Amino acid sequence: MRDQMWTSLGEKIEPAWAPEREAAVRAAIARRSTRRRAVVRAAVAVASTGMLVVGGFALVRWHSAVPVAAPPGSSASTVPNPPAPGGPDEAETVTVTRLSADTVLAPLPDRDGRGFALHAGGARFSVRHDPDRPFIVAAGDVTIEDLGTTFSVRYLGADRLKIAVENGLVRVRAVGTDTEVPAGASLEVPVSPAVEDPGPKSRPTTASAASWRPLAERGQYEEARRALRKAGPSAVRDDTADLLLAADAARLSGHPEEAVPYLERVLRGHARDPRAGLAAFTLGRVLLDELGRPSEAVEAFARVRSSGGPLAEDALAREVEALARAGDVTRSREQALLYRRLYPNGRRAKAVSRFGGLD
Amino acid sequence: MSPKPHLRLAAPLPDLVPGGPVVFNELFARYGGYVARLASRLLGSGDTEVDDVVQDVFLLASRRLPTIVDLIQARGWLATVTTRLVARRLRRRRFRRLFMASRRGQDVPAPGATPEQRALLRRLYEVLESLPTADRVAWSLRYLQGEPLDIVAATCRCSLATAKRRVSAAKKVIDEVFGDA
User: Fold this and answer.
1) Domains of chain B, earliest start first
2) What ipTM was predicted for this assembly?
3) Chain B residues touching residue A33 (CB < 8 angstroms)
């Protein structure tokens, strides 16, 4: 009975649903529907604008990551370096700022953003030092290596380069010598133009930089040398294998003088590498046999001999020969006697006796 | 054993053609009052809140018109939507009550009721306010709206057993309170 009571009571609950109220509710629904459509349209517009902005920003960032000359009128612009394999923190350890509108800057291939070739203008580099992956800037035949620093490099003319250090220390390799420049100091060095003028139209690309290696490895040294000259000096990585391969491409294509800088870079920058002895021996041979510079060859052979190893006997023999050709008869004889003592049955004993005047 | 409630036959609807396209104005004209009545019985509150529910229900219906097959099926769909929206409002009301932010003691719109019946309804809704929302809605559909249990289950989107359990749980409390009524 009580359930029936609730049902009859429920039937008495009747809101006054008059036509006026119905019309008011309908109008309110229409208003809300219109407002909702407007909100949806606004949200779509905002989302579209946001996507366009994000897309445009990504496009701009992508474009600015490609090495190009800074646009005229902008005195400075930041070049984000490509992400390093170590993650985003490492990628942010290098900040590069162009210092002039005519700056032409290109990342060195295979250095994961830890090296740039400066072809024109000037740039400022802020670098966190990583002893395992040193940051370098190549400007013509000058190489600047960071030792934990902020520094700038600027061409003063076609043949002068100025390196100014703000913080830390950099090592500058120019004209065969290393100079460490401390914070607050600057250094001006002569710079030879690159092997080929790297104007904007002949800027090295990764493809051309990589193309000389397979040619050299296949023994097509002349083609490899041509490709190397076209790509510019930045196409050669600063590691022993690449430098030795580039030296081979130069000397075996009949241009031994071009091999010398590569071999010297091995001796300067990779002296502890096991192949440094081979580089020094090759340098000695190039200087002695192909360039007719026996005095310099003596130094190269002496370096190989003093470091020991499988090339020591040959190096001593060639040292004797180089000394003889340089006209240093006394030292030539001394070294020949040394050879005879160290290698009494040496395979070069006959030639050593001849050049050392022991016959 | 409590007597079963009245079983009422629905009135014939000769003008409703199954499968016909549903037009919003027609839907609102036909079911606006029904939705308002159902919301009023479930909420037990005044006109403003009922109007809000009617707006919400028909605003949703206006967006779902293409999915409503015909006017006959629209009634069940509208009942389900109304029940869901009312349940949401009731839960919000319970939450607000925790912070003493809820209005209480509203008159239930019952124009044909005697003063004693109005007092009974006011007391009933006070008791319903203390019940879990799901139990309250199920009981209200069963007894205030007079729907059979299978319709209650379908409207609440639960199984028949769950609907029975909810109705029973609410009924137990109400019977206890109104035992001497």
Assistant:
1) 20-104 (1.10.1740.10), 112-181 (1.10.10.10)
2) 0.77
3) 59, 62
